[in-house]
Design brief:
homodimer, alpha+beta, 2 domains, EC 6.1.1.22 (chains A, B), aminoacyl-trna synthetase (chains A, B), protein biosynthesis (chains A, B), Asparagine--tRNA ligase (chains A, B), ligase (chains A, B)
């Protein structure tokens, strides 16, 4: 007798006739008049539960089996058999049922087998993975993360963990959280009345990182091909379905690469990840297609099959201005595109993912490489049908004189960037990279509407439970 | 003509006679009297640099090639040839040298080709990956992280990202950093004079996590086999070579597992990771063996080959008391073992990794499963020769009544653990897990003495540079 996962049974990996024990949680129980109970057991190893057919001859049939409710934990021993019923190919003919744990009061069990709202599930984030939808999300999330690590590893990229706590607001990508151990009831002050951060844990003011990019550039400028995969933070009061205060980012950075190189990298990375999900998580994807978003599989399939269309920002503005469609926000060269514009371009105008390139320098960060026209920088956004921007990246300014002029122009203090400037003083190389918001990717792949439902324990303004 | 990595050339993957371009940084340049320059170029793809043989016929030979110094960035085009010299099998017969970037002032270049102290390299964390030692560490670090993800993925584990920001000090594993957006010059107070954290970003006091364990238990109690791999934090004023304020942890958590199951998991995980390093990073490991720690490869090989020895804490105490060796710290049942004791057991008494089990409950956390003797808990530490404790884990108390009694005994407020208690109220299952400090693992594998040298940008008291 050996233990088996539900997926091993349902996939046919275990020979019919084998005696095994499956351990998991009861999804449903149904009793026939003939004195047989059908118990569906899930263990998280795949979308479906396995059916155990429990005859009344089992020792504890009356005392326990017929009292099992959703959420009870059990070990069921029995023989793998071909299933006579519809749906699944295999089932378990039970000879023994062991109950590990009961549900305290089935009537008040928070994960009772009725339909719950996503808000309700969020309030029970410690139990929601017991539901079909959150279980499926988390398996797809895992599949994507594994695929991304594998993609980069196979191509010779090194994973680099950039720091979470940082003493510089160097990228200026957003509002930051302060990290401190100062006694809040007794903040030390300097003679001039300012806070004496020299007495704080790190000897200076410290924050949570908004991006690992500047740090990982130093790794690209020696190890050539690197990527981060780690948490980043925004202390912005954005209570929307697309924002999290804490989210995971994937940031590849590539020495000797230009904008087109990383546009190609972004395209092949997304295709690789989507193929992995469709292959490895077909069961969960079928569920999302059926219950969450009927277009979700087609959309992924199209991204896999289509060539991404490259387009200049300047051309995109012209297209949007002349398309005859009335947008909520007007379009003008020099302003950032809104989600409605991005989606029009990807969904209506082209009908495929777009890589939009060469944005006006005034709406982009200081580190982006200036183009020869003096007006634009070598930045790109990847716009996907159905969601809009999913990746943002750029070539980095590797010319010290140009970088310095830009820092001056933007009134950024050079001292603060001294180590970053060192990378340009000593054997500088052209390099480029991009950032992918991992939870945005998971919403795109699953069709889930709210980003808080694709991360285990979401953090948002006024919300840091569990 | 195509681009190639240094590793592709040196491994013989590219046919002799092929014309390629290698891009990287100059490690050394040597000029022969015959008017030929030998330039060693590294690009991070492997330990060794490739030698480019540059004849004086190259266009910019006098104007640029003979001026190249350590750290300059170049693209060298040429033909792959078998190397006549010692050492490497292949070299590049250059026909063209393009210089991307010079070193501003070679005399003051911080990574000049002399020997630097580890402290010095730490002060130049943005440049130190250009050195042999840090490059090797970071490749091994990447190899270990990829191997760990692969190990768990192959066995059906799901990666779970537990929250970084947390509002509960539930585990009590150590001092915590506060995360806040309150205006430090103007802290809001309540009528009773206390700080009004309701006005803070998350509406309550928030911290950086010390462990994802409690959170990930909720995932094990539905998805069965899960693991975390993410950053954790300790605000402890420990300025030692073994402590970091920010470090990465790997925490598998397994439903239906007992202490012996996760002891077995820890053993197979370490063996898998060490095999991966010895196979995939033989070049870097040869360097560590030669320059950092002459026993390092043997030690890994032994861990791979030996069965881990299981031993009870109680037996270990008796062995230590009767071994005749004089320890700095006395040994008595009921006290925690010190590093000297752990190393004696693993290195002298057994000569193999030890899994020490069943510690006194009073020196362990509230969540560890109580044994029937009423005195010990089902906890384990993995002690490795040469380093001592490398993994700590336990079975978790899954019985609500026992858990509650322990919370009372330790005067921990039940309300704070209500969601954790829910896991025991609804279909509780035996489960167990452990934590591996990822940087401890990297120091063990590389033989590096200071943990700050195995993480890209170390954070420690008074130190959060870059």
């Amino acid at each position: 007798m050996s233990f088996a996962s539900v997926v091993d049974v349902l996939s046919g990996e275990i020979a019919v006739g084998s005696e095994i024990t499956v351990r998991g949680w009861v999804r449903t129980r149904r009793d026939s008049k003939a004195g047989i109970s059908f118990i569906n057991i899930h263990d998280g190893s795949c979308f479906d539960a396995v059916q155990a057919v429990v005859p009344s001859e089992v020792d504890n049939y009356q005392s326990e089996v017929v009292k099992l409710t959703t959420g009870c934990s059990v070990a069921v021993t029995g023989t793998v058999a071909e299933s006579a019923g519809q749906g699944q190919a295999f089932e378990l003919q039970a000879t023994k049922v062991h109950v590990y744990g009961w549900v305290e009061d089935p009537d008040t069990y928070p994960m009772s087998p009725k339909r719950h709202s996503m808000e309700y599930l969020r309030e029970h984030a410690h139990l929601r993975t017991r539901t079909n939808v959150t279980g499926a999300v988390m398996r797809v999330r895992n599949c994507l993360s594994q695929a991304l690590h594998r993609f980069f590893h196979e191509q010779g990229y090194l994973w680099v963990s950039t720091p979470i706590i940082t003493a510089s607001d160097a990228e200026g990508a957003g509002e930051m959280f302060r990290v401190s151990t100062l006694d809040m009831m007794n903040i030390p002050k300097k003679d001039n009345g300012q806070i004496d951060y020299a007495q704080d844990f790190f000897g200076k003011e410290a924050f949570l990182t908004v991006s690992g990019q500047l740090n990982v550039e130093s790794y690209a400028c020696s190890l050539s091909k690197v990527y981060t995969f780690g948490p980043t933070f925004r202390a912005e009061n954005s209570n929307t379905s697309r924002h999290l205060s804490e989210f995971w980012m994937v940031e590849p950075e590539v020495a000797f690469a230009d904008l087109n190189d990383i546009a190609g990298l972004a395209e092949s990375m997304l295709k690789y990840a989507f193929k992995a999900v469709l292959t490895e998580r077909a069961d969960d994807m079928a569920f999302f297609q059926q219950r969450i978003d009927s277009g979700v599989i087609d959309r992924l399939q199209q991204v896999i099959e289509q060539d991404f269309v490259h387009m200049d920002y300047t051309d995109a503005v012209e297209i949007l201005q002349n398309c005859g469609k009335k947008f909520e926000y007007p379009v003008a060269w020099g302003t950032d595109l809104q989600s409605e514009h991005e989606r029009y371009l990807a969904e209506v105008h082209v009908g495929a993912p777009i890589i939009l390139k060469n944005y006006p320098k005034d709406i982009k960060a200081f580190y982006m490489r200036q183009n020869d026209d003096g007006k634009t920088v070598a930045a790109m956004d990847v716009l996907a049908p159905g969601i809009g921007e999913i990746i943002g990246g750029s070539a980095r300014e590797e010319r010290l004189d140009v970088l310095d002029a830009r820092l001056d122009e933007m009134q950024l203090p050079k001292e603060q960037y001294s180590w970053y400037r060192d990378l340009r003083r000593y054997g500088t190389v052209p390099h480029a990279g991009f950032g992918l918001g991992f939870e945005r990717l998971v919403t795109y792949v699953t069709g889930m509407q709210n980003i808080r439902d694709v991360i285990p324990f979401p953090r948002a303004p006024k919300s840091a439970d569990f």
